[in-house]
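Batch manifest, entry 17 of 40.
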Amino acid sequence: MRKWQALAIACCAACLAPARPAAAQTPVDLQLVLAVDASGSVNQTRFELQRQGYAAAFRDRRVIAAVTAGAHGAIAVAMVQWTGPTLHVVVVDWTLVHDAASANVLADTIGRVQRQLFRGGTSLSGAIDFAMTMLAQSPYRGDRRVIDISGDGSNNSGRPATDARDEAVKAGVVINGLPILAVEPGLDAWYRDNVVGGPGSFMVVAQNFDAFADAIVHKLINEIAMREPASSNIMAGLVPAIDDVPGGQKPPVDARDKPAHDAN
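Output type: structure tokens
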């Protein structure tokens, strides 16, 4: 009897004990979601160019220098493949990057990623909404939160991209774009008006998939260092990243402090 009484008292004490506080999120300079287009218009060759472009970017010394130069000297990165409104696969979970070794580990992980999606439409709104969920569930707390979305087509399924974009911007998230003009020549204008948004947001335009690797390096340098390019619409291969500018001079800022369709 005494044994059962002792057990009951112990259980009551456990119930009345204050709950343990949730584990604190690790602070980082930037939480970055890389949202990669895997829709039907992206054939396997084009997908490989995207994957290898991202992997090479995180091995680039300029990207690593941008990572280590921040107040926390670290960023958190995750990658998701997307197609339709509800078709998303997280292929790289949240990863801490704080030096060359960790950047190379991330690059190797990205380089091994296999394609998980092949069709289902093109829903940039769905990609933005899913990325917002990823940011909310991250074990890291970023001074800045950015969704980096690349693709070769405009929204053709799901809710309007502007609705998802505006909600994300209202929540304090910046959306940068990397439109690839291989399929839709005017896609850069559509991205500017419907996808890109938030303070300092910008896009880097890749004329084709072969230019993607250069485009993503330029984009990551500016994104991580929170340096807005001289123009919010950079054509990859034609405009140098800021770290490539002689003397490291920061060019004039063309920031987008509000949703793109409201910008002057």
